[in-house]
Amino acid sequence: xxxxxxxxxxxxxxxxxxxxxxxxxxxMPRQTISVNSVPKSWFQIxxxxxxxxxxxxxxxxTRYALPxxxxxxxxxxxxxxxxITGIAYSRYHFFTPNQDSKGNTxxxxxxxxxxxxxxxxxxxxxxxxxxxxxYRINKNLRLSSDSINGGNFRISFQNRLSDNFQLDYxxxxxxxxxxxxxxxxxxxxxxxxxxxxxxxxxxASGIIxxxxxxxxxxxAGGGYHHFQQYSIDLICGKAWNKKESYRLETFPSGEIFLxxxxxxxxxxxxxxxxxxx
Length: 277
Fold this sequence. Notes:
It is a single chain. The protein contains two helices and 13 strands; from the N terminus they run H-E-E-E-E-E-E-E-E-E-E-E-E-E-H. It has 277 residues and is mainly β. Strand 1 (42-56) and strand 2 (59-74) form a beta hairpin. It has helices at 2-20, 268-275; strands at 42-56, 59-74, 79-96, 99-108, 111-120, 128-137, 150-162, 165-175, 183-193, 198-208, 215-224, 230-239, 254-265. The protein has a twelve-stranded antiparallel beta barrel. Helices cover 10% and strands 57% of the residues. The longest helix is centred in the first third of the chain and has 19 residues, at 2-20.
């Protein structure tokens, strides 16, 4: 019996090391979706608190994430299931020469259900590639901008240029709702792994509409992970081109976000090992 317990512990330790040796790169709060997928039978939870501010000539909208939530589960070592939602509180201030009004509301934002598949591994100058897609549920949700459902997809790339530096970039299309104009997205994000615990990154991103001028955004942030399966990230960003056509659900005029990420092993494999000893 003791030998079986020792063997079980050894298997779990080796499996833990093989997983935690991988980069724990989160998909939030950056706009760049990482090429990495969650290993098989592991949950990855990404949640945080943040503030987004949208300002233009006659209004100011401040949205507080309380909190955001991304759940990821590894179906295989290359395929993951994804669920995105969040609770938010918004404050509105509208001001014109003839009117000055304030208000607030809170509730759940849109729900997104989807998955990610890792398509290619990096080979020399060729990047690793993954594909991520979501179906967006807007109907009957208080803070959704549309009552008709939508969706999005993203193709992500990564070049690991050295042990301490990688380049993440992605492109895709987002439909806030299916009848709405498509929104073309690009992101470029250099990541510096300062040491085993600290990393820093910047990100240039943008969104291009067919009906209004494009909006470009820049973020900077850093991450700390004392344990390989847990990390904390702080990121802030600001739009670098002032436009009268900001749309809150795509990019705000400014934001700051504190993000927590951790992985949890599901019990399915543990039960399998126990049944076979």
